[in-house]
Amino acid sequence: MLLPLIFLILANLSALVQSQSVCLNNGNYTSNSTYNANLDTVLSSLATSVDSTGFYNASFGQKPDRANAIVLCRGDIQLDACRGCVRDAAAELLASCPNQKQAVNWQEGCTLRYSNETLVGKLAIMPMYYWWNPENATSVDQFKEDLRALLDDLRPRAVYGGSLRKVAAGHITGPDFQSIFALVQCTPDLSLEDCSSCLIGAAADIPNCCDRKRGGRVLRPSCTLRFEIYPFYNETRLQELAPRPEPPVQSPPGEHGGNRTRTVKDDGDGNTTRTAVIVTVSSVAAGVILAVFVAIFLIKRIKQKPKENHETVDDISTPESLQFAFSTIRDATNDFSDDNKLGQGGFGTVYKGKLSNGQEIAVKRLSKNSGQGDLEFKNEVLLLARLQHRNLVRLLGFSLEGEEKLLVYEFVQNASLDRFIFDPIRHSYLDWERRYKIIGGIARGVLYLHEDSRLRIIHRDLKASNVLLDGNLNPKIADFGMARLFGQDETQGSTSKIAGTYGYMAPEYAIYGQFSVKSDVFSFGVIILEIISGQKNNCFRSGENVEGLLSFAWKNWREGTTANVVDPILRSGSGSMTEMLRCIHIGLLCVQENASDRPTMASLVLMLSSLSLTLRVPSKPAFYVPSGNDSDVPLFEGYNSTQSQHSSRNDASITDLYPR
């Protein structure tokens, strides 16, 4: 009989030293077999081989009898304690799982797992094990909010810890003057995306194991999470192993408002309590290259004096490896031939090109008479140089020569998403499986910008035309000309100059110039509804009637006829209608009128990946226009008379790679 994938045990964490082995029924071996000998060899080598990083992997033998093992010690324990923990874990596994080819053991200070299959670089989230403190927290709702804020702060610090250590710990002042301490850690062989995904999932499991509790642990093979109301980790050890931080960059208040203060103690980076004043102070992690450091400084100077000239950003600084000779790009595009033109927007033209090594590129040649284009050029170069994610268009480099300013991107074969979903012929190429994959990819890309990149980035112009599709129809987010860069502790900002595309803009941004991660969530929700319906947000057609997509989706969801929103070609296909209706529900959660009601991108990724996760009931969309005798007053009643002063009613954004 298969063992359960999730194991639970009730324990007082402060009183016990826990250990748990899980034997997986993925094949057995016999005593004196080749696999038995290989496994003994591997396990016996771990304790003596693990070094101060606390991570080690080893393999021995040939397939199919090859034995593989990985060990990870908690990031705050000393080497001797780590080695002792590994010895105990190996002995316990051999005793508890005498003939299973795959097993995992969690100790107080380490995790050890072995398998006849490759382990290195592969995300493993099962089996899971939970421990929790039996005592309940006080002021539960506030406790949960503060814990979530702490974990959201620690996760990117762990993700970007490096190739040898992915761990972060810290504490925050919780309700009733008590502190909440937490430590998160991944095996360092994971990619940035897999580490982030593992920790997001672990945090999402807290309600399943430790709801309302003062402390708890979520243990997965590839990552672990623990929180308590008392210090349980070795702060001194974490400080010894942490990279030396650079001095924080101080920024005076610019056009951003806000005065909420939160104090977080980063026990992995130093012994100084850091007070983060929202949208006025950002800190730069050690190891960030000079280009990103300059980006923070320049963009904050730009925000501070938006109406002055921009001489301060003329001296752009970026690694030599990013710069192309103008002649190289000219030759690649056949002297910017019209035959290679991909499109033209308000601030420049985009050309397809091919470098001498055969690599295809997309080159944006900014208009020489566009002063604003110069600024956006520098913004993108400095911002995009360090953004690396499979769901973001990759900036390969740039060229500067006289008045010529070029951005060089990877070439994305299938142009933009809107050319598929709104085209009467090509939209049939996108079955539900492909559309669902596109929605998930966009969500992961935005999550990276909001939480998992080195700096928090708000895109501000998410729309179907700014999502490109590669040869396999994987989505890649483009156009960062209006993006705003924040420190990890900053959450929102405001501007007197509103720019974007009407229909995708959140109401608080369109009317008041207030933008945040939740304004990007709103735009993402509009894109979800467009992908499922196959129609533009401002002209949904149902029979003879034309109305706004958000209005139509909300009306049908409320009346229990949500399937009417789904593209007819999907309704007649083989896709899961349950998934489609669930995605419409998720889209409506994103476009709620109140920004605080909208979910975060981390929550959205979980909603899209887990059908078992219960969804809240959405409230009325911001752009819902009532009909008949509806007594509610529409949020944007009368707004059409002023929107043209602020928003871009066409789709020509200056950094569209393939403008219409």
UniProtKB/TrEMBL annotation:
InterPro entries: GNK2, GNK2_sf, Kinase-like_dom_sf, Prot_kinase_dom, Protein_kinase_ATP_BS, Ser-Thr/Tyr_kinase_cat_dom, Ser/Thr_kinase_AS. It holds the Pfam family PK_Tyr_Ser-Thr. It is a single-pass membrane protein. Residues 17-119, 125-232 form the Gnk2-homologous domain. It comes from the Eukaryota. It is found in: Membrane. Residues 639-653 have a biased composition (Polar residues). ATP binds at K364. GO terms for cellular component: plasma membrane. The chain crosses the membrane at residues 276-299. Residues 240-270, 635-660 are annotated as: Disordered. Residues 1-19 form the signal peptide. One of its GO terms (molecular function) is ATP binding. Residues 336-611 form the Protein kinase domain. This is Cysteine-rich receptor-like protein kinase. The lineage of its organism: Eukaryota, Viridiplantae, Streptophyta, Embryophyta, Tracheophyta.
